[in-house]
Amino acid sequence: xxxxxxxxxxxxxxxxxxxxxxxxxxxxxxxxxxxxxxxxxxxxxxxxxxxxxxxxxxxxxxxxxxxxxxxxxxxxxxxxxxxxxxxxxxxxxxxxxxxxxxxxxxxxxxxxxxxxxxxxxxxxxxxxxxxxxxxxxxxxxxxxxxxxxxxxxxxxxxxxxxxxxxxxxxxxxxxxxxxxxxxxxxxxxxxxxxxxxxxxxxxxxxxxxxxxxxxxxxxxxxxxxxxxxxxxxxxxxxxxxxxxxxxxxxxxxxxxxxxxxxxxxxxxxxxxxxxxxxxxxxxxxxxxxxxxxxxxxxxxxxxxxxxxxxxxxxxxxxxxxxxxxxxxxxxxxxxxxxxxxxxxxxxxxxxxxxxxxxxxxxxxxxxxxxxxxxxxxxxxxxxxxxxxxxxxxxxxxxxxxxxx
Length: 404
Known about the structure:
Layout: H1 2-12, H2 21-48, E1 52-54, H3 56-69, H4 74-86, H5 97-100, H6 102-119, H7 123-127, H8 135-141, H9 145-160, H10 163-183, E2 207-208, H11 217-222, E3 236-237, H12 238-248, E4 252-254, E5 262-263, H13 272-280, H14 282-304, H15 307-316, H16 329-341, H17 343-358, H18 366-381, H19 386-395, E6 398-399
Parallel strand pairs: 2-3
Antiparallel strand pairs: 1-4, 5-6
């Protein structure tokens, strides 16, 4: 009997140990991508922001898989992420590179997650509401977190023998590297910005599939409650692709996606509809202002400037749309010096600030907003700057209804 048991174990342990190298790679990519999907679709878009509704089967599958592959707790992850959005780039942000430095967040992002509840004892109660609190969560996932990742190790060893240990190690490093390190670190440090949000979030790449679509981090911070992270035709969000696939089978339902601006070219008035359309698309409006006003005026100033002035303008381009609260002293000084030397560019910059301030008047009535926007357009048209004149006319074409 013992001999028979030994033979069974010998044959079963490392069941796929003769798999070619590409088989190990394929399996590793599948299981790590599944974990990423669990983080971005379940923890992030579903639980943290309620951007998408998931069928209970899908939701619990991801809970179970994350317990196996990461040992992360839903309530803790959600609470930390919600606090990140609420306190972004402040000393209370659990993992901001602006606070801790890029090196700390990139290499020790997972440790920052573990330390967050210790630094804020009220974290889970304040930010973790609405997450699963059933029998399984209370008696299995929460108290037995280590048993999940140990079970994953046993499964990998059973399937692949000693190689399974390496695969398991990759699985354990995947989320700390890509989610905690790259997204929370690089995603607030390097990349491009579609929208000038009140933080340092950036899109790392327009092709977002390695980290489940999380690479489009600036888009997410702009429309935090959106189930879709891509906003331009050239951006691809694999997390959204999965949601749409699940939706076909009735397993997911997006609650919100980024708004698309609509225009009526014949419209030439500022009314309540204009205000509603601009409020809904205010981030898009400011992005348009940068491309249709700031860039043309900058280009014209560079055309007229001498070599020293051209160098000054080139260095200032990225600063002209950045929130000054995230600039270091030298950048602020450079921006001030540039604006002091170039009158039209300074005017375009000031008009941008005034336009941005319109949407921050939380106590303003609709009538006030209409009047303030009307005054802004009149002043822009009287500025003598052609790009500003054209943009003042363009603002009036914003509408809530799609145009034919």
